[in-house]
Write a structure and sequence with these properties.
By secondary structure, the protein is α+β, with helices and mostly antiparallel strands. The chain has two helices and five strands. It starts with 11 loop residues before the first strand and ends with a helix.
Amino acid sequence: MDKKEKQELFEKETRYCKIIRSVELKDGEELFALEKIYIKALDRYEIRICLYRDCNDRARKLIPRPVDITQDKLIDLIALGITAGILDDEFKKQLKGCIV
């Protein structure tokens, strides 16, 4: 019998990465996202905070620029990430260690 490789579920795949899980927060025309991604070339998982916009050439286009977000929207995005399991218990432990 052949061993079957564990198939990893993901939302989307690009040449650069696989988006494993994501949460989104809409603010006007901007859509902020917190994503757990797998970087293929580096063979590791990372967390990405990004901005998507509906553009003329396509809907929900990733905007490759720094994300400017208000403090309360950032808190909301982090809370969504914790609830969805994107940010794990280790993250929460490290965050608590910063807030002394």
